[in-house]
TrEMBL record, chain B:
Region forming the signal peptide: none
PANTHER family in UniProt: BLL4140 PROTEIN
Name of the protein: ABC transporter permease subunit
The ABC transmembrane type-1 domain, residue ranges: 80-295
Membrane topology: Multi-pass membrane protein
Alphabetical list of InterPro entries matching this protein: MetI-like, MetI-like_sf, UgpAE/MalFG_permease
Keyword Cell membrane: yes
Record keyword Zinc-finger present: no
Taxonomic classification: Bacteria, Bacillati, Bacillota, Bacilli, Bacillales
Family assignment from sequence similarity: Belongs to the binding-protein-dependent transport system permease family.
Transmembrane segments: 20-38, 84-105, 126-156, 176-196, 217-238, 274-298
Localization terms from the record: Cell membrane
Pfam family, one: BPD_transp_1
Amino acid sequence: MKKWASLALTCMLVMSFLAGCSGKNEPAKEEAASSGEKKTEAADEVTKFSISLRTLNFGYVEKSPDINADKWVKRVEDLTKTDMDIRLVPHKEYEQKMVQMFATNDIPDVVQGQGGTTGKEMAGSVEAGVFMPLDDLLKEYGPNLLKKIPKEAWNRMSYQGKIYGIPEWLGNPSRRATWIRKDLLDQTGLPVPKTVDEYLNVLRAFKKLGVENPYMGRQDFKYADTFFGSYDVFPYLSQFEEADGQVQPKFMDSENMMKALSTYKTMFDEGLINKEFATINPTTFKNTILAGKAGIWTMNANELIQWQTQLQDTVKDAKLEIIPSPVGPDGKGGYYLYGDVARSYFINAKYKHPEKIIQFFDWMVSDEAEQFFTYGVEGENFTKEGDKINYKQPTDAQAVDEERYRQAFLWMVQDTTYNKGSLSLTEEGKSLMSVFDNTLANEGRDGIEFDPRLEALKKNPDIAPLSDTPPPLLITHMVKMVYGQEPIDNWPKVIEEWKSKGGSDVLKEANERYQSKEGVFLPRK
Amino acid sequence: MKRKTNKDNGIWRLIWKYKALYLISIPSILYFLIFKYIPLGGSIIAFQDYNIFKGFSGSDWVGFAHFAEMFKHYDFLRILNNTVLIGLYDLIFSFPAPIILAILLNELRLVMFKRVIQTVVYMPHFLSWVVIAGMSVAILSPTTGVLNQLLVLFGIDPLYFLGDNSYIRGVLVGSGIWRDTGYGTILYLAALAGINPELYEAAQIDGANRWKQTLRITLPALLPTIMILFLLHIGKFLDFGFERVWVFLNALNTENGEILDTYIYRAGLLSQQYGYTTAVGLFKSVVGLVLVMMGNLFSRKTTGESLY
């Protein structure tokens, strides 16, 4: 028995060693084969390159067994005479995986960033010279890119005066919106609210109607920050302002901050916001809303049609609408503005034919590309009558997934505000476009932003805000104040605490940078 | 030549004698070398201003600056305090739990019943912390949670367990007990199965009741296992685990809930200060090592059981 077991074990070991060895041999063989291929390909002029793409949580991408064998990828390759080797980066661990990629020096020919040259996910790679400057190449091979992409977006892709990446830009950076259950509002008989007080009245009326969460709260005020916008005190990364000749974060405007906090406290005390909002996570947030238990909340406007459909599954008469956000004392309101760049593409400095990559992206902004990504392939997904395009929008979940993947994932360089071609096909789509152009374009809060990030902010994560979350130190106090565990009058003390824990250095550095105008982006609105 | 070394050198002869054992231990030796000992060298970046593009040969040396910064940090004492307290609670409450459960299970005479109970108590171990946190939020919720409704039955006001600094440590340790106690009984049950039944028979004849038998036979028989597991537990004293804490933290309970691991995550991965966080991690490991050595010494002196 013993002998038999040890024999079996030894055999297994030997086999696993052999397997290991043969495994090692394979890539070598492949390489040899691919180098052979390269020679023949040079004749056909197919450009081969590897590219890293974030999965963006797209079901179609994450479920795909092999994205490189996907039919739409193949079609893009045919149209552009390329052969892409797509390396997917998981959405959730994007930053970590990117840093890992740089640390192991396994960098693809084209790397996708999430906007900006010095973001955290880039891990200092642009400064380290991993990617090539593109100005001359763009002039020669990317005329359409230069023409179509706005200057603000290019500015974001510049480092020390040189362009390092090609941006997928956002024409309208005001994306988040105030949503309301219009059917409930009609029941109350109240008009569409405008000011903070009118909003509170509507919330109270919702409460009377028996709505469980008149205003839908969420952990850390994420997507629940409507009233900080009314008072223009978002404690976020891009929200610095000039006050008395000094640059400072907007939350240092104590007067308005305390007003905003009082608004939330009122809502908390009167039960207009869930008493447990400090522990409500994104999933609970969405499920509660889709179960018809919320009246007003914040979400990205582009999700409107999808949520409307899902909500109607549970509440038949539900009607969602996006309304102008509550305005504060200065007559303005809205949410923080997104950056001008949604995704961006950097070319590895070691790549031999960067001009081909530029041409590839230049094609992305062509009319041919727009038609392809929006409607798909003629004869298969749409038909043409003269100039008119007959495109049937998919209805079943799987096909919707596929359409979204084609329009938003594969179409790498475009204005991602909304897909015009597809929205203009339906009434709902048209009204959504008008929400973007008429409601959202007129609101939103922007501030002075520093890119690259201030060094002093890197030192202490407790005092550093993220793009849409306040610094942890502030969140703690903000939540406690709303819960009544700390008086709101304490806010000036909170600011002092923030300063003493490293904030003073932040202020000092911000002002120095502001004076020297290095990497400073001024408010767009 | 070869024969001569074999004869001269005791070690080689020993190896030759047990060659099969040595052969099958090669993979695990390689595993430890490659995945445990070589990465240990990476701790070097605790003394550097580490830049991933320069690597540790090109990054600047900063000596003990990161350690100094750590001890100077205004929150360091609070976070260390949390870590030690939570670790201590874990030691006091979680560690004995599987022992007690195993002894209780051992007293069950109906085999089928025992099997079913075992399976049920093992189960939670296979849930991820994210799932457990989700369940806890539901169970502990002041308005809809089961636990609070129970409290209301007894006339106690509902408590916002996850939104209060004073409960978070209890929730953290408690959820750990719920998750891992059953699984932790495996080793103890195995040890219990090894006790010679004749001992119990003899004790019964001498007139010992169940409780006396447990005290005089079961516990002493378990002691070596308990001691070894205790020492292993001590080694991980500051290692409460990142995920299980991270999923429970929110703005209202960070003050008492934040531990070194979650701080390392925030400062290291979210702010990309690799050198600094490696220093914090190294500090944690050194404390763990010292604790294990002390515990081992103590255990050898008192019970004669030890890890090495």
